[in-house]
Design a protein that fits this description.
about 110 residues, alpha+beta, three-stranded antiparallel beta sheet
Length: about 110
């Protein structure tokens, strides 16, 4: 999924402005945006629920984030966590999650 978009991004990366957000669909660069919100809004407006690539231009590798994992709604397999270099699921601030999916100091009402 998104192989075509990722290939185009890799081909164009050197010419793209670092720190900006690019929106790519298929083999077309749709636009370059200052904020992730702008790029996401445009992607949603143009493509709805269809897939597209939104990526911040930079030299660093992208970091995988998934709010459902961070909030404990979904559980990642041990193999997945090892593949991304994390041995235990963590909250966004890096604290390990409790068995119910919340940081240990978080209360139910927060």
């Amino acid at each position: 999924m998104l192989e075509q978009e990722l290939k185009l991004y890799e081909q164009m990366k050197a010419a793209l402005p670092v720190g900006q957000f690019v929106l790519i669909r298929g083999d077309e660069l749709i636009g370059i945006y200052e904020t992730e919100s702008q790029a996401l809004s445009e992607g949603a407006r143009r493509f709805g629920r269809e897939s597209f690539l939104l990526r911040r231009v930079g030299n660093e590798e992208p970091v995988f984030t998934n709010p459902a994992l961070s909030l404990g709604i979904l559980r990642a397999s041990r193999q997945f966590l090892e593949r991304i270099g994390r041995h235990t699921p963590c909250a966004r601030d890096g604290r390990p999650l409790s068995p119910v999916g919340r940081p240990p100091s978080a209360s139910v009402g927060s």
